[in-house]
Amino acid sequence: MKMIWRQKPKFSREYLLFILLPAVLVVAATLLFFYFLVRPGPPRTIVMTAGSEGGAYIAYAERYRDLLAQKGITLQVLPSDGTLENLDRMKDSGFRVDIGFVQGGAAKGTDPSGLVSLGALYYEPLWVFARGTDPVDSGKALRGKRLAVGAPGSGTRKVVRELLAAGGIDIPAAKLLDLGGMAASGAIKGGEADVAFFFASPEAPVIQDLLRARGIRLLDFPRADAYPIHFPLLSVVRLPAAGIDLAEDIPPREVNLLADVALLVARESLHPALIGPLLEVARKVHGGHGVFERAGEFPAPREGDIPMSGDAIRYYRSGLPFLYRHLPFWAASLATRAALLLIPVLGILVPLMKFIPPIYRWRMRSRIYRWYGDLMVLESDLLRDPDPGRRSEYLDRLSWIDGQIDNTRPPLSFAQERYAMRMHIDTVRTRILEIQEKEGAGRKPQKR
Questions:
Q1: Most exposed residue of 139, 242, 268, 394, measured as fewest CB within 10 angstroms of its CB?
Q2: In Å, what is the CA distance from 366 to each residue of 14, 17, 18, 369, 408?
Q3: Which H/E stretch holds residue 253?
């Protein structure tokens, strides 16, 4: 059997040049543009400014660190004097920090620019401990006593001074001790202070220690219900008898406490991809039932002097995005950024592919059609001047056009145009030969 040779279909250089190359260039340019437009991936390490040693902020920060490590995120915890120092650090662009704990009421009157709140975490009651048995039924009963109001830089110190002033205490003349945390606990147990104030959760070691200390009692805050009228960011919580420890009957009676809320605050520059994991960790740490909190009450989007983060609000409304719910954090982050890059690429590439094939077809056909112009000029010259003496010139010009077509090797899908051109060349050649024959017949000698 005789073998029939067939040309294998292949991509022409023109195909690569006019379809693939423009598409690749457009995709590359789009990717480059959106690479600089889309934020880089989240950092693997973030820094938190927490609180004083022995306080709740440090204890919670350590729990955050362990839970974030399970997601591949490293949390560095920095001790601090409290809320005011945390705010100062986060507003200082030269200080390396990303997030911090802040007492809600202590942030009142501060400049919140550059900061966003990720939500309220839990109630921070104001614990007031006193030595001895003297009754304290009003703010005036604190006059003349040595009051440990919190360390400098702490939110406790700022808020307690405002509460004492509202209760009739002459702040400049009062015996105020700038002690907080374990230092204040040591001062009241050692007789160096008469009353000590603490904004802290019930789980804070300093609170647990003082609730069980001999000679120290927890005060029922005088006229607690009146203070939220003058300090709207505060609320009243009630600690039931034995609410801390049933076996030891701590406290022995119901106590009214003023309460603030602890906030998780971040710089506006915090990568948005980190907000979801941070709030997931906050939900695990603070979302359960507490002494004062209902299960699921925290974390919560509560407005205050520091504006809420838009990404945090979206989390509270919808939870984690789909990819972050089903993939590890870093895989979800990478997939999200890839999608952000892929969507505009497809948006450009899909319509682009509709325009490139017609351009390619025009380019392929133009390699053949452009010789029709020379062929039409030749035919026009032939009709205008059918001089037999120009026969060789016409044939040479036609042979040159024919040679150009011979050198044209279009893809198989465009071979029809090539062979059509050859047929038209043969038609003109035939007309040249016909004119020559007619001219020869007209020159036959006449009979005499």
A1: 268
A2: 12, 15, 13, 5, 11
A3: none
Query: Residue 15: inside a domain, yes or no?
Result: no
Alpha helices by DSSP H, listed for 287-414, are 310-318, 322-326, 329-384, 391-406
Which residue range(s) make up the domain with 397?
346-442
- What sign for the dihedral angle of Cα 182, 187, 190, 193? negative
**Residue 212 to residue 244: CA distance in whole angstroms:** 10
138 lies in some domain? yes
Q: What is the mean pLDDT of each run of 10 residues along the chain (448 residues)?
A: 41 55 68 60 91 84 95 94 90 94 82 92 94 73 87 88 86 86 93 93 90 93 88 92 94 94 94 92 94 93 88 90 76 68 68 70 72 83 81 85 78 75 85 68 50
Q: How many residues does the chain have?
A: 448
Chain-centroid distance of CA 27 in Å reads: 24
Question: Which residues face 199 on adjacent strands?
Answer: 126
Which residues share a beta bridge with 115? 267
On whether both 361 and 290 belong to a single domain, the answer is no
Phi then psi dihedrals of residue 395, to 5 deg:
-65, -35
The Cα 9–Cα 12 span in angstroms is 9
Report how far apart, in Å, the C-alpha atoms of 411 and of each of 4, 364, 365, 372, 414 are: 19, 8, 10, 19, 6
Q: Do 95 and 205 belong to one domain?
A: yes
